[in-house]
Amino acid sequence: MLPGLREVYDAYVRAADELPALGAALRAEVWTSAQLGTLEAAAPDAAARRAALADLITALRSAGTPAARLFLRALAAIGPAEARPAAARAAGGPDEGPPWARRLGQVAPGQVWLVQEGPLDGDRIICEFRYVPDGSDLHALAVRLGHDDVPSEVVIVGDVPALMNAARRAMQAELCVVQPCDPAAAGPRLRAALNTDAPLPEDCYPALALARHRADLLP
């Protein structure tokens, strides 16, 4: 649909060679989210983003390499919901790829925390996740929301204990308030903030696709 971007798609196909060496589902999801973030940040509007993503899926399917198919499996797991069925069909059989590829997107939410840093700094919502069924690889989605719940920071945190220890130290220093948050309240708030076509700060885009996937798992 966007033939002028053929060289861009070819670059994504070559970049996919990095995926098998990552060796873990979370690393592969973070990598895939960063590629999608680059694509979305460069798109002039939502229609162009959807067209570019459809073209990328076609290019990866045409490449047919194990790395390209692994990229497609990651897209099918954590990519935009409207693109997941096409990516899954293009990826081929579910048993292809390294063993950890079967865990892509297979996570369950855990504790949710609300960090309030003052009326001028907004709120930070931290949502913990683990892979199922073994509960391994604890990680967190951390989203800082400013005025009108516009995201100013979106990150995936691998060291959750260190993050929470830092938050608790800040609370002891009276720099913020940390309290448990009802996932049923955090989910709609995060989805409304993340599923926007409005431009976001550049640093938000690398984690945006994975953040949307994780937020969709909340009530």
Write structural notes for this entry.
By secondary structure, the chain is an alpha+beta fold. The chain has 2 domains: 3-103, no CATH class; 107-216, no CATH class. 46% of the residues lie in helices and 18% in strands. Strands 4-3-2-1-5 form a 5-stranded antiparallel beta sheet, with helices on both faces. Helix 1 (6-15) crosses helix 3, helix 2 (25-42) packs across helix 3 and helix 7 runs antiparallel to helix 8. The longest helix is centred in the N-terminal third of the chain and has 18 residues, at 25-42. The model has no long low-confidence stretch (mean pLDDT 94).
Keywords:
219 residues, alpha+beta, 2 domains, 18% strand, globular
Structural class: alpha+beta
Q: Please, how many domains?
A: 2
Radius of gyration: 18 Å
Tell me the span between the first and last alpha carbons: 36 Å
The pLDDT mean sits at 94
Q: What is the number of E strands?
A: 5
Strand portion: 15-25%
Low-confidence stretches: none
The percentage helix is 40-55%
> Strand order within the widest sheet?
4-3-2-1-5
Helix-strand string: HHHHHEEEEHEHH
- Per the principal axes of the C-alpha atoms, what is the gross shape? globular
Q: Sheet with the most strands?
A: 5 strands, antiparallel
Question: What's the tally of helices?
Answer: 8
